[in-house]
């Protein structure tokens, strides 16, 4: 009874609909399953303990096996690896650690052959300090002098030179580093080996657009764009100076990025224009090459109102997929169903008409799902990811339920961890989510033939690995594969969506399309036994529903039938039902 009352209460609060007249008229990416490969940790083909492009080519058919349409690769370009490839020394060369351009071409061949598209990481904000442009900029070369952001600094009363502003880098400490040769400070929003490009220089903008053209002409399907909110800083005043950023008094550590409000170094209006210009390049390439749409997935941890503008507006298009980090950033292990519902609604209800939703639940910068939200929720989260409308994005290993690996201070290699301290690094290091993929229970989990791996393997690889999961019917892998099959159903692909919390513990998602079976997805987020009444909450349900997907937490089996007004859910159970 209590549940019934709650259901009616929530019923009043709900209902999101994504309406679309020509429902089946969608481009490939709008309903795609994306998969992020972190190349260093996917598959090593040459025994050096670091994954590489040949390794990806060898295992690309695995992505086909799990129903992936496109994979985005973290950077594989020439790099001194100060930030493991996010410090690019040549945007159109492959780093020898990852292989050669011939290896890349072979990957593209394989990609075409099996039908898994390749998306590259585009890092517009900065280059490596070993990039030729920066080396020439240091030398004050006329062509490159203004490719980066330079300033002689300020001289204090006692004659010491200090940086031009108080700005703090994302990786700690001043955003400015002194360069002896040029006798000036250069700006870096991230590591000092990642100098920021100067986007007020039109030559920089054009040179970066050429990078996009280069790779699309080589056959890639698009780009994940890195660190977008940082592309522009505020323009300097007429004396060439910038203002200091105001303090956040809740953070006492003055070297910490959080100690300042980034009103001059993040989310500047020019950045949006730049995203629209990158999109324009994609549109031009679509026209030049025909075939299919080349896409942009933009990475930005920022306010939802700004993210919505990334999509574009009525006169201009922006990113096809501005990454939706609502769930990734805000869900906690203690979140209740209302919180889940609210975060989902935040995105769906804010999206401008005609745009496509997307859901990101993991990446190489964040703790893994099983660690962040609890290993018992791994399947449930994948069920949610795969049944919400639009594009889904999976980080490598989440489909087999890999979890974080604890890494000692001595073994920490991530600059974000290393630039902190032994006391702080665990909060900051991104190494734990970057460990090698667990292919099997053999030598080094099948990741490499070599004797070392660049980050330690998870100790659980003998029992948690792809090979073993292939043979277990309720493994994370097999649940994931079933979900991928279900995603091909028209109602899942093109249908409308209602999302609501039935009560504090149960989240419900309805996917429906006229003329098709309706799907009801139920997640029992916590440990309480629950009985819910979807029939009362959702209109147009048949009296009976059929179980379409169950997990190892269920007593019910696929094919079982149940009354749609009384559905029991066990602890942390996630199920999908369909009308009959
Ligand atoms: C975001 C990337 O995902 C992260 O790994 C990197 O450190 C920064 N951008 C800087 O490029
Ligand atoms: Mg290798």
CATH C-level category of the largest domain: Alpha Beta
Radius of gyration based on Cα positions: 25 Å
Task: Predict the CATH topology of the largest domain.
Answer: TIM Barrel
Q: What is the topology, as strand order, of the major beta sheet?
A: 13-12-11-5-2-1-15-14
Let me know the largest β-sheet.
Answer: 8 strands, parallel
Give the overall form.
Answer: globular
Describe this structure in words.
The chain has 3 domains: 4-9 and 495-579, Immunoglobulin-like (Sandwich), CATH 2.60.40.1180; 27-125 and 205-235 and 267-482, Glycosidases (TIM Barrel, Alpha-Beta Barrel), CATH 3.20.20.80; 126-196 and 236-266, Oligo-1,6-glucosidase, domain 2 (Alpha-Beta Complex), CATH 3.90.400. It is built from 17 helices and 23 strands. It has helices at residues 2-13, 53-65, 101-114, 132-138, 202-217, 269-289, 304-310, 326-330, 337-350, 369-372, 378-387, 415-418, 425-428, 466-470, 476-486, 490-494, 534-537; strands at 33-37, 70-73, 77-78, 90-94, 117-122, 150-151, 154-155, 161-162, 176-179, 184-187, 222-225, 295-298, 321-322, 358-360, 391-395, 496-501, 506-512, 519-524, 530-532, 544-549, 561-563, 567-569, 574-579. Mean pLDDT is 96; it is low at 11-20. The structure holds 1-deoxynojirimycin and magnesium ion (MG). 1-deoxynojirimycin (NOJ) binds next to loops.
């Amino acid at each position: 009874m209590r549940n019934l009352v709650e259901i009616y209460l929530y019923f009043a609060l709900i209902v999101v609909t994504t309406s679309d007249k020509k429902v089946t008229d969608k481009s490939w990416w709008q309903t795609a399953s994306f998969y992020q490969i972190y190349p260093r940790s996917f598959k090593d083909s040459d025994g050096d303990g670091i994954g590489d492009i040949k390794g990806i080519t060898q295992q690309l058919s695995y992505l086909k096996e799990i129903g992936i349409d496109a994979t985005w690769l973290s950077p594989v370009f020439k790099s001194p690896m100060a930030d493991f490839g996010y410090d690019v020394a040549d945007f159109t060369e492959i780093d020898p650690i990852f292989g050669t351009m011939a290896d890349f071409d072979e990957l593209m061949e394989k990609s075409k052959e099996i039908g898994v598209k390749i998306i590259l990481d585009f890092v517009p904000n900065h280059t490596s300090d070993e990039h030729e442009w920066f080396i020439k900029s240091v030398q004050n070369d006329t062509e490159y002098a203004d490719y980066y952001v330079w300033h002689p600094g300020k001289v204090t009363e006692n004659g010491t030179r200090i940086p031009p502003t108080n700005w703090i880098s994302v990786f700690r400490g001043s955003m400015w580093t002194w360069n002896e040769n040029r006798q000036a400070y250069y700006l870096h929003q991230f590591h000092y080996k990642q100098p920021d490009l100067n986007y007020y220089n039109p030559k920089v903008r054009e040179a970066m657009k050429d990078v996009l053209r280069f790779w699309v002409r080589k056959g890639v399907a698009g780009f994940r764009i890195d660190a977008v909110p940082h592309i522009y800083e505020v323009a300097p005043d007429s004396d060439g100076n910038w203002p200091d950023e105001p303090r956040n008094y809740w953070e006492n550590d003055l070297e910490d990025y959080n100690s300042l409000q980034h009103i001059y170094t993040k989310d500047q209006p020019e950045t949006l224009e730049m995203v629209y210009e990158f999109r324009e390049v994609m549109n031009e390439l679509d026209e030049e090459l025909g075939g299919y749409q080349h896409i942009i997935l933009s990475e930005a941890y920022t306010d939802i109102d700004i993210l919505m503008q990334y999509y574009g507006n009525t006169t201009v298009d922006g990113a096809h997929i501005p990454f939706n980090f609502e769930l990734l950033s805000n869900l906690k292990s203690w979140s209740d169903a209302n919180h889940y519902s609210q975060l989902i609604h935040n995105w769906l209800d804010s999206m401008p008409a005609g745009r496509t939703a997307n859901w990101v639940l993991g990446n190489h910068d964040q703790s893994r799902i099983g660690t962040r939200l609890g290993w018992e929720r791994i399947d449930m989260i994948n069920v949610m990811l795969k049944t919400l409308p639009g594009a889904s994005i999976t980080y490598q290993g989440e489909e087999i339920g890999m979890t974080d690996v604890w890494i000692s201070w001595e073994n920490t290699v991530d600059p974000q961890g290393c630039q902190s301290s032994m006391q702080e690094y665990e909060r900051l290091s991104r190494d734990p989510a970057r460990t090698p993929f667990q292919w099997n229970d053999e030598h080094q989990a099948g990741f490499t033939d070599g004797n070392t791996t660049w980050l330690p393997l998870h100790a659980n690889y003998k029992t948690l690995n792809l090979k073993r999961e292939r043979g277990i019917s309720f493994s994370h892998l097999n649940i994931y594969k079933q979900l991928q099959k279900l995603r091909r159903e028209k109602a899942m692909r093109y249908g409308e969506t209602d999302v609501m919390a039935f009560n504090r513990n149960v989240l419900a998602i309805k996917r429906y399309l006229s003329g098709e079976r309706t799907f009801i997805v139920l997640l029992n987020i916590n440990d309480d036994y629950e009985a819910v009444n979807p029939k009362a909450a959702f209109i147009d349900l048949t009296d009976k529903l059929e179980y379409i997907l169950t997990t190892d937490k269920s007593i019910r089996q696929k094919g079982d039938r149940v009354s749609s007004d009384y559905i029991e859910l066990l602890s942390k159970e996630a199920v999908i039902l369909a009308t009959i």
